[in-house]
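Hi everyone, sorry if this is the wrong subforum. Our group has a chain we'd like a structural model of before ordering constructs, and none of us has done structure prediction before. Sequence below.
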Amino acid sequence: MADQATRFFVLFGGFLMLGGLVLGLRWTFGTGRNQPGPRIPDPDDPTGDGLLEEVSRVPTEPAARVLRGRLLGAGIRATVGRTENGYRLLVFRDDLVDARVVLSRGAIE
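Answer:
Right subforum, don't worry. Here is the predicted structure as tokens:
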């Protein structure tokens, strides 16, 4: 009789520990419903650049390189994309406001 009770408590204790582990991991690594979901890009948008946003548009490549250099000097990652009307300066969405501030300051003295 004691042997069956011991087996029951071992089995029940194992399930109880597993449940506690699952709840602990869920609490630690789970995502809450109050967190915003990722922005899903529109697949039908022909101007979609994935994670990049346009911060400026210039007519020539040298102008685009100058602006990109200014952003890189401020620690903002940027890239240049060519369009049929000129060149687009693209930055990550998180850096968009900072990039606009840097570019609005004008020439570096």
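For your construct planning: The beta strands are 52-58, 78-83, 86-92. Residues 22 and 28 are 10 Å apart (CA to CA).
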